[in-house]
Amino acid sequence: MADVLEALVGRLEAVATRLESLLPPGTVAPSAPAAPASGIVAMSASLQAFDDILQGPLATYLAASTKIGGDVATHADVVRQAFAVQRSYLEMASTSAAPAAAQLQNFLQPTSQKIQEIQQFREKNRASKLFNHLSAISESIPALGWVAVSPTPGPYVKEMNDAGQFYTNRVLKEWKEKDKVHVDWVQGWVQTLTELQKFIKQHHTTGLVWAGKQQATAGAPPPPPPGCPPPPPVLDMSQLNVSNGDDPNDRSALFAEINKGEGITSGLKKVTSDMQTHKNPNLRSGPAPFKAPASNASPAAKVTPIAKPPNMAKEGKKWVVEYFKGRKDLVIDQVEMNNVVYIFKCEDCVVTIKGKLNSVVMDSCKKSAIVVDSLVASAEFVNCQSVQMQVLGTVPTVSVDKTDGCQMYLNEQSHHVEIVSSKSSEMNILLPDQSGEFVEYAVPEQFKTTINKGGKGISTVAVESLG
């Protein structure tokens, strides 16, 4: 019993020491901790747990990103900034009361801006050799928005972690046998979000805890972007050498020859009778037309692509549907929320997916369609021709890249969808009206860009085609 009492006394002394460190200089600590102090202790433990994530799996991810370099390193630096912003937000919540709903958006703005910056970096670097790395982060970084989710923010983080799994699997498949650094990169990022979910479950089970009493204040706005670079120096025309020869006086000699007048023709040869074509018809025939030399090489044989057998199989959490032709009866009816469906090189097919899943990707398909109940993350079309999609429930994001002809039939529940398109044409969104008839809206393919007043940046707007 004496040992137990001694341990309890030690813990109480440690708590008192931490409380004294939180008080302003010169303040006398109370003899017994009051209710607000216990709240501060709890949030201090929360911040410490969050710091463990920053110094643990996130640090592993950042270190691996630095080793990989290039776009991944640049992307990771913005991710680091996003977690730093979230850390500041949690620290503010530990000493402040919950702000009014009208003010909450201002406090969430820095986090939202970083998430958008991370996702925009991916969209601007679609040609990157490490595009799968950028996509894995962009699809799952909205997990930082858990601070605005209630009453169950933990499952939301898991959904975002699952949303990036399709691309982390691609990274592992491509680099597992080549470079272990990429494996460490995947493990560091996935573990970061896994630990974040555990952190929320332990410290913010039903939503972000605002533990203080003072009124929260928004931080200062970010500094304005730097101004435009100075114009290039004016070219000094006096430094140009327009002379073709070594002697700069060659031009004077040329003008002197021109100014001879009639004497300039004195050096020309006289054309005699035997040189005149009208007196000598045999001079009129020109040289024989050029003929390419005969080649002994045989014409190259046409390369016929090897036909691969159709395949529909589940690989872990990914369904693969590939190389089908003329099949309108393909059905996947055992999907889970963390599953993805990858449809590759199918032609004249219809794939029906029953249930709610993470995402669907249609790659290099022609005259094909997908019908899906609901998606957690996104639907993506890449290198396709004449494809269709019908969503019976909800879909947050649709991505169309290098695709000609894409018809998107959406449900009333999907009015919040975001559609990102690039290098694509003939895209249409079809929405049901009150009578149930679908109304077609064309996605703009033409844009007008103008330079802002004073040369400060540019502005781009979509324009309707008049052709």
Structural class comes to: alpha/beta
What series of H and E elements makes up the topology?
A: HHHHHHHHHHEEEEEEEEEEEEEE
Rg, nearest Å? 35 Å
Could you tell me the CATH topology label of the domain at 35-203: Serine Threonine Protein Phosphatase 5, Tetratricopeptide repeat
| Proportion in helices | 25-40%
pLDDT averaged over residues = 79
Measured distance between first and last alpha carbons: 90 Å
Q: The biggest beta sheet, please?
A: 12 strands, mixed
Output the CATH homologous superfamily of the domain at 35-203.
Adenylate cyclase-associated CAP, N-terminal domain
User: Would you state the CATH class of the domain at 35-203?
Assistant: Mainly Alpha
Task: Give the DSSP E fraction (strand runs of 2 or more residues).
Answer: 15-25%
CATH architecture of the domain at 35-203: Alpha Horseshoe
Instruction: List low-pLDDT spans.
Output: 18-43, 219-246, 297-301
Shape: extended
The DSSP helix count reads: 10
Task: List how many beta strands DSSP finds.
Answer: 14
Structural overview:
With about 475 residues, the protein is α/β, with parallel strands linked by helices. The radius of gyration is 35 Å and the shape is extended. Among the domains are: about 35-205, Serine Threonine Protein Phosphatase 5, Tetratricopeptide repeat, CATH 1.25.40.330; about 310-465, Pectate Lyase C-like, CATH 2.160.20. α2 (about 35-55) packs parallel to α3, α3 (about 55-70) packs antiparallel against α9 and α8 packs antiparallel against α9 (about 180-205). β11 (about 425-430) and β12 (about 440) form a beta hairpin. It contains 10 helices and 14 strands.
